[in-house]
Structures are given as C-alpha cells and as structure tokens.
C-alpha cells in the first residue's frame, strides 16, 4: 500500500508519555510514515521539538491554539513567535484559528491572534493548520483580506461541516480539508458531504489523542488508526485504498512542500 500521511497528530503530548516510541512504531507498521505535529501553545514547544528530533518521521509546526488565548495572549503569542524566529525548523503554522464552542469571552483576541499568525504564514511561506469550532464566519472574516495571496496555503483541520460550509473554504485553492475519525461515526453526515468534495482537496488526519475512529472510538487515538479513516474514504469514493493513500499523501505534500524537500 502507498504510504499514508497523518497531517495532524499530537503524539508529543502527555497522553503518550508511556508508549510514544511504540505508538510511532505502530504507525509505521500500519503504513503511516509521515506525521505532521501542530503545536498547542507556549508550554508545549519543547516536548514537540524533542519528539520530532528523536523521530525523523515527525514534522513540527508552530502556533498558538485558539483555546490557549487568554488575558495573557499577547505575552504567550510573543513566546511562540520567538520560537518561530529562532534556529529551529518548522513546517507549518499551527494549530491556529478560532474556537467559540465553549466560551466566547476572548472572541476578538482569538481573531487578532489568528490574523497575526496568518501573517507569519505568509512571511515564512509556511502552510496554516486552521482549527475552527463554531467559528467559520469568524475564520473566513480573518482570512478574507488574504484571499488573493498566492502563497497562502494550508489545511482546514477537522472539517465536519455541510456542503454549504465547505464551499467558501474550497474557494481557497491552496487549502485542503482535513478528514479524521469523525467520518467513521454512525451519525456522521460527512460521508454524504464528501461525495460532493473532490478527493483532490482532502487530506487525512487523526488529531490524536482525540477523535479515535471506529472501531477504536472511545479510546485514545493514535496515528496507526489513520488506516481506518483511509478505509472509510475508500468506501465513500468507491476507489482502492492504494488510491486513497496515494492521492491524500500527494495532497499533503502539496501543502507541506517544505517537508517534501527532505525526502
């Protein structure tokens, strides 16, 4: 089988402290050979980099997650920016975006922080890994001034919306939709939605340790389970698992072009 690429995994977090090396081995044994790891906030960068330096299949991103935006957001964002402008190599700006699902207190601050990080992506010619939860209007509002920027690229992470919600995202031609384990859930509407979305605009992700696919739902997710997502897409698109792997990995490497030059 053609190699799979997990475009969004947090194997550097504490949930994997007991078996991180084994989790990465299991991923490889399942055919998942490339693991892109978005940062969370100013407290997680060292763990992220340590994991990626130990395991060459792991590619770090840098960013401040929207749920980490608080009263000290400017200080925290500055700390993340110092890492970006330092000697370390990063392959994307993420995980960034807007999350208004639980709390709208820092809505404007989230939008400001997201805008700043979009500017980083353009300055450093890196793709964005965009988190959006109950916030598509706000995300699109921030992105609108950059619509015609040819260098703007990335992934709308964890897409789970409707055909109508996908349409304005797909207008950003250099962006992909990230599909993960939610597509395997019994009540998910994604299988029907994806029938209207070209496979050429889809990448695979786990978002591990979260959102484990069926038959692992309810357990800690890990990159090895990406194959379950790929199998579901094989059913949806009516094509072979090899084709799903080849196309989605090709799509991922279009986004992460800096990483593709390391192979």
TrEMBL record:
It comes from the Bacteria. A divalent metal cation 1 binds at residues 8, 10, 95, 207. InterPro entries: Metal_Hydrolase, TatD-like, TatD/YcfH-like. One of its GO terms (cellular component) is cytosol. Pfam families: TatD_DNase (PF01026). One of its GO terms (molecular function) is metal ion binding. A divalent metal cation 2 binds at residues 131, 157. Keywords: Hydrolase, Metal-binding. This is TatD family hydrolase. It comes from Phocaeicola barnesiae.
């Amino acid at each position: 089988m053609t190699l799979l690429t997990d475009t969004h995994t947090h194997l550097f977090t504490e949930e994997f402290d007991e078996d991180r090396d084994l989790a990465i081995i299991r991923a490889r044994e399942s055919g998942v050979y490339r693991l892109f790891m978005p940062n969370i906030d100013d407290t997680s960068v060292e763990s992220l980099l340590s994991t990626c330096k130990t395991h060459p299949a792991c590619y770090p991103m840098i960013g401040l997650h929207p749920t980490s935006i608080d009263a000290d957001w400017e200080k925290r964002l500055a700390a993340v920016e110092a890492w970006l402008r330092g000697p370390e190599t990063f392959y994307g700006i993420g995980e960034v975006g807007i999350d208004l699902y639980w709390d709208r207190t820092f809505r404007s601050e989230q939008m400001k922080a997201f805008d700043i990080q979009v500017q980083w992506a353009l300055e450093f010619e890196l793709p964005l890994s965009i988190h959006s939860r109950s916030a598509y209007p706000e995300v699109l509002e921030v992105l609108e001034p950059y619509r015609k920027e040819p260098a703007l690229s990335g992934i709308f992470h964890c897409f789970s919306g409707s055909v109508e919600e996908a349409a304005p995202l797909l207008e950003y031609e250099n962006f992909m939709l990230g599909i993960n384990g939610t597509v395997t859930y019994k009540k998910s509407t994604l299988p029907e939605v994806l029938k209207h979305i070209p496979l050429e605009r889809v990448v695979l992700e786990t978002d591990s340790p979260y959102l484990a696919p069926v038959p692992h739902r309810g357990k800690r997710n890990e990159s090895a389970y990406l194959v379950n997502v790929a199998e579901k897409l094989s059913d949806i698109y009516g094509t072979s698992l090899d084709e799903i792997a080849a196309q989605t990995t090709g799509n991922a490497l279009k986004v992460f072009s800096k990483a593709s030059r390391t192979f």
